[in-house]
């Protein structure tokens, strides 16, 4: 079994105690563009989501893990979505919630752990990510982890004022 523990962080399943953290992330308007969210989520809905978060990835077709520092502070979330076992592929998304925790290598380490899990445990052939064209930090993070830009989706997302382009990046397991 592949370890979900790195040098500075570890990944773990969501727990009921994550209610406040997930509620804060899902209701942070500045982050809504990452998930195409347009409305706030109630604590009740987040609680129900957490109750079902333990569903097997083969059934739910997605997996959300908490990113925690070795001091047990939850700092972000990392997702496997659109899990497609037949074609052996899935999407990956990552979020480090607080800006003060960004640019410290936590995202890089979390992404490396999840990619390793996807390839060695889930036996996927490829993983992909969708990243807005202006999000240079995320583009750099994924490209430094072996992802290649394979296309640009023009006018893909509307932020309320303008249409934005989005790259699709892909990493194939050699």
Description:
InterPro entries: GNAT_dom. With 174 residues, the chain is of the alpha+beta class. It has a domain at 9-124: Gcn5-related N-acetyltransferase (GNAT) (Aminopeptidase, 3-Layer(aba) Sandwich), CATH 3.40.630. The protein is 26% helix and 34% strand. It is built from five helices and seven strands. It has a seven-stranded mixed β-sheet. The two termini are 19 Å apart. The mean pLDDT is 88.
The name of the CATH topology of the domain at 9-124 is Aminopeptidase
The percent range for strand residues is: 25-35%
- Stretches where pLDDT falls below 50 for ≥5 residues? none
Give the name of the CATH superfamily of the domain at 9-124. Gcn5-related N-acetyltransferase (GNAT)
Task: Quote the average pLDDT.
Answer: 88
Q: How far from one another are the termini?
A: 19 Å
- What is the helix/strand order? EHHHEEEHEHEE
Q: Based on the structure given, which CATH architecture of the domain at 9-124 is correct?
A: 3-Layer(aba) Sandwich
Shape: globular
Radius of gyration: 16 Å
> What is the name of the CATH class of the domain at 9-124?
Alpha Beta
Pfam family, one: Acetyltransf_3
GO molecular function: acyltransferase activity, transferring groups other than amino-acyl groups
Protein name: GNAT family N-acetyltransferase
Organism: Winogradskyella luteola
């Amino acid at each position: 079994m592949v370890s979900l523990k790195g040098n500075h962080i570890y990944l773990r399943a969501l727990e009921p105690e994550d209610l406040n953290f997930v509620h804060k992330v899902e209701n942070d308007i500045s982050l809504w563009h990452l998930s195409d969210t347009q409305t706030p989520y109630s604590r009740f809905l987040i609680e129900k989501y957490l109750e079902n978060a333990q569903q097997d990835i083969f059934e739910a077709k997605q997996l959300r893990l908490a990113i925690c520092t070795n001091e047990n502070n939850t700092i972000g979330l990392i997702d496997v979505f659109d899990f497609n076992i037949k074609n052996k592929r899935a999407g990956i998304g990552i979020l480090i919630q607080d800006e003060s925790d960004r640019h410290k290598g936590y995202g890089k380490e979390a992404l490396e752990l999840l990619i390793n899990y996807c390839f060695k445990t889930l036996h996927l052939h490829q993983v992909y990510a969708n990243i807005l064209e202006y999000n240079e930090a995320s583009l750099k993070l994924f490209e430094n982890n072996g992802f290649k830009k394979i296309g640009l989706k023009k006018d893909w997302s509307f932020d309320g004022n303008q249409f934005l382009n989005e790259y699709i990046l892909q990493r194939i397991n050699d």
